Amino acid sequence: MGAFKSLENFSALANGCTPLSSHVSDMRIRGIALGFLSITVGACSAASRAVPLPSPAAVAARDLTEEEQARHALDRLAFGPRPGEVERIRNTGVDRWIAMQLDPEDLRDDEGERIAAALPLASARPENALDGLRNVSQADTVARRAARQRAAEVSRQLQVARVARAVASERQLQEVLVDFWANHFSVFAGKGPVRLYVAQYEQEAIRPHILGHFRDLLGAVAHSPAMLVYLDNWRSAADSQHPTLAGTVVRRGRRGIVRQPRAPRRPRGLNENYARELLELHTLGVDGGYTQQDVIEVARAFTGWTIAAPQAGGGFVFRPAMHDAGEKTVLGTHVRAGGGESDGERVLDLLARHPATARLVAMKLVQRLVSDDPPPALVDRVAAVYTRTDGDLREVVRAIVTSPEFFSRAAYRSKVKSPLELVASGMRAVGAPADPTPRAARMVAQLGQPLYGHRDPNGWPERSSEWLSAGSVVSRINFGVALAGRAALGDSLRLALESPDFQRR
Amino acid sequence: MQRRVFLKSGALALVTIGLSPRFLRRAALLAETRAAARGKVLICLFQRGAADALNVLVPHGDPYYYALRPSIAIARPARGVDGAAIDLDGFFGLHPALAPLAPLYARGMLAPVHAVGSPSSTRSHFDAQDFMETATPDVKSTHDGWLNRLLAASDATANARLASATHPAALRGVALAAQAPRAFDGPLPTVALRSLDELRIRANGADASRLEQLYTAAGADLVHGAGAEAFEAIRALRAADPDQYTAANGAEYPSSEFGRRLRQIAQLVKADVGMEIAFADVGGWDTHVNQGAATGQLASRLDDFARSIAALVTDLGDRMDDVVILTMSEFGRMARENGNRGTDHGHAGALFLIGGQVKGGKVYGRWPGLAAEQLYEGRDLALTTDFRSVFAEVATRHMGASRLDAVLPGYTAPEAAWLGAVRS
């Protein structure tokens, strides 16, 4: 049984971390002492600045004890506590710690940098990932195979880096939110050339925007080759009933400059896939009040948003000859004919400012961070913050994690861990270093959550109860047992890893 | 653990007040032979992603079909032509990759149903799947799945409960799927697994029983609920070792995930652990781009689908008299191919009923036609059969559910409106 072999491996992994691949063996983890140091340093720098903290009255009104608050914050806004971390956060002050996590760029993150250095392809742009493929002739099958393997290595390293950062990065909330948004805008690495683009997707479309404005995140995703390929928009073109912006092309011939109509390499027509999921999953939600005609109009607006040379890792390009130049009406708003690339931007503006989008974003974030059944009053308040701040995700998250509902008894330990959360929290609990080998990421996959491996565009469920079934619970128990099998662990930690409580956060 | 309390009091109620003469007869039979303890089994197979019904069950007799699909249509049946549709009745044909199912049609075990689906107009995969699994189209507030309600209402239940020592409650419904299907949601315990291999605790004996106590001890939460079901299933399946299983009658399952899942369903049926409903899903049907025709993307999905089902039927042999296989997909796809030699989301679809008690060898459903004015919203195959009529027929005639309103709330069409594709 492959699955169980690697469970056995897992205790080796947690014990000593003997890296499988030699090229990353120089990556040794300094570990907890350094982590502690950077927290202390961070605390000093945060203390010298004005950090927005909740009022003393609000803090006093919380259901949870101070220790529970610290544990809860670590379970929800981080991937679980490391040894001694609950006490350290109590010393820092849970609200101060949260405020610091909301400004991750100010937190020193040596571990994160070490991980980036050890796994260079995890942040590689596709053209770099494909280096080996340049200037290789079709006939050179050996070189081409090597190049393909290198491309596969990109998504492998990306998964390894994601899990490693979840375990070891000091910017824990950032990693939680990367997991959330990469899942909200889920792409499947197994679909065609998406594999080439997925590292760039996380690095350039997701990470820079998770605490920025939703409109920027949405725009970065819409332009990303990963999403354009995954939801087929790169092939979507004006259908034959609508004019394009093809116009004429200028060619230099023997008789000087010749203007001729663009070659009738006629794009074949509309593809609704991206437009539908943009409305249903990325912004308004399925009950957001759009119609089939809106889907078609949105698809028309995005015609021509495509990529150059997908098999060679090309980037975003707008192709006028594919674009439907006619007028459109999206959600009752008129979009004038001939807008070109700006049609899509216009649609994204509309969607990002739509009240249904505010609600969907609020609802999903509350579901991830607070409760499987989001308290309606909290969702209302958070959606209002979204609207007031024009979709400032830092303020949206702050509103959630400083709310009484977040620190409520009802929310405490009410969520079931996802496989990523289970594996990362287990490794953190035993003080294991980040794993530069594929083993931890493989374990996450075996427990049912291969990263960038969700085929459908809806991503993994936010309702955490869906992670539990008779089959999955056995695999999850086995993971805890394997981890607890380390000789060096104390009894109480060992029992904690095997207990039903370890399945929850 | 509310689920289990519900179960126990439910069983008690049956024993004390449910003793109809028919029930007693069955009980007596049950006690007599092991063979008689074989209950009816329903195997539901969900094609997630919206399978393209017009290329699965090809309306080669419809004059508009070929005009709508210039690059992806399946050729008219013709002797000696590779990649042509396999004719069923002069009008419909099977996709050539479904060849492994053709003999079942010839033997009268396969009943295809066309222009069937959900009356909801949604073209969202996820809403449509929910509507089909709750069997309440356009009602989002339904919290339980139709298969859980069927377990509660089916008469076959009585069989299983009498023999409860060998038939643990949680194994009455088994899903071989990555996630527990919505159709299983509800108060009765069921099991969802990706593979039977998952049910092994990797600890030595003493530790294993300590873990069992930990995870089955009282506690009304999710973790304990799943834990209790898991350990119950582990005990019941201790004898059924998936590694030791050999398929019967020379059945050859594909080595795909779907093939492996159907193989394990056959194993569970034969192990007589009281499984009444099995569920498996299979993805890859969302063919927006380059779906292919006789070969290509859709064809390779259908090849796996058909070979897996054919192997299951062969493997189960005579047991198919007690089994109905019901396939479904959330909706069909656009009648006209799109700009990328693929198809976008549509409306009505097709499904298959397979079993010894299925009145097969005939294509069911009224054909709405593919002329522009016959299409739903001018673009999709129109719906003439509500999927709930098929569910209703299977629930009552095959599974013996007595109270249909409890299984399919809000569905009121008279029995006369059913297709009549299943013998009771």
Task: Write a structural description.
The complex is a heterodimer of chains A (505) and B (424). Chain A is 51% helix and 5% strand. Chain A is mainly α and 505 residues long. Chain A has a domain at 110-230. In chain A, a hairpin with an 8-residue loop joins strand 3 and strand 4 (316-318). In chain A, helix 4 packs across helix 5 (85-92), helix 11 (194-206) runs antiparallel to helix 12 (214-223) and helix 18 packs antiparallel against helix 19 (393-401). Mean pLDDT of chain A is 85; it is low at 1-8, 11-48 and 263-267. Chain B has 424 residues and is of the alpha/beta class. Chain B has one domain (38-195, 248-417): Alkaline Phosphatase, subunit A (3-Layer(aba) Sandwich), CATH 3.40.720. In chain B, strand 3 (86-87) and strand 4 (93-94) form a beta hairpin. In chain B, helix 9 packs across helix 10 (222-237) and helix 11 (257-270) runs parallel beside helix 12 (297-316). Chain B is globular, with a radius of gyration of 22 Å. The two termini of chain B are 36 Å apart. Classes of the chains: A mainly alpha (505), B alpha/beta (424). The interface between A and B is large, with 47 and 56 residues.
Quick one: biggest sheet of chain A?
Answer: 2 strands, antiparallel
Write down how many β-strands of chain A occur, each being a DSSP E stretch of 2 or more residues. Answer: 6
Determine the number of helices of chain A (DSSP H or I, runs of at least 4 residues): 23
Helix fraction of chain B? 25-40%
Low-confidence stretches of chain A: 1-8, 11-48, 263-267
Q: How would you characterize the largest beta sheet of chain B?
A: 8 strands, mixed
Q: What Rg of chain A do the Cα atoms give?
A: 24 Å
Total number of domains of chain B: 1
Q: Strand portion of chain B, in percent?
A: 5-15%
Class from helix and strand fractions of chain B = alpha/beta
The name of the CATH architecture of chain B is 3-Layer(aba) Sandwich
Number of strands of chain B: 11
- Overall 3D shape of chain A: globular
* Biggest interchain interface, per-side counts: A-B, 47 and 56 residues
